[in-house]
Amino acid sequence: MESKGRPGDTDPKDSHLTPGNVMADRPQKLISPVKNSRNHQDLHRELLMNQKTGLAAQNKPELQKVMEKRKREQVIKQKEEEAQKKKSDLEIELLKRQQKLEQLELETQKLQEEQENAPEFLKVKGSLMRTGREVAQAQES
Fold first, then answer.
1. Exposure class string for 16-29: b at 16+ Cβ within 10 A, else e
2. Does the keyword Transferase apply (predicted)?
3. Which of 56, 90, 95, 123 gives the lowest tally of CB atoms within 10 Å of its CB?
């Protein structure tokens, strides 16, 4: 009967499993001079601290910021379009009337501005014509 638990007993089949041979069979991990450099370690430590505190989100590349902004704008536009589609017929009609009223207001404002910016002699001529008509109507009556 064989006892396998004794340290002195070794089987010739298991001779490659001795502690000296185990190290020789596996390649050793190479030491990276970049990772061992003090600057790299400091930078890595700073990045980890920034990530934990949430500062890394502020230092995004410009391209990433622009892409995120476009995505947000696209989502907002999509939501507005969906809201527009969901509007009832009454709401649509009210919006059309509101737009017409706004256009009329803009046109009246333009006319008033044109009258205000008109030369003085045109204003006087217009008022004389009105008073002339009023006098003529008063005489006919």
1. eeeeeeeeeeeeee
2. no
3. 90
- In 9-134, which ranges are E strands? none
Instruction: Report pLDDT digits (tens) over 91-111.
Output: 889 999 999 999 999 999 998
Instruction: Delimit the domains of the chain by residue range.
Output: 89-141
Contact 141, 134 (CB under 8 A): no
What's the burial of 50, exposed, middle or buried (CB within 10 Å: 0-12/13-18/19+)? middle
Q: Global pTM?
A: 0.28
Give me 69's structure tokens: 């902004």
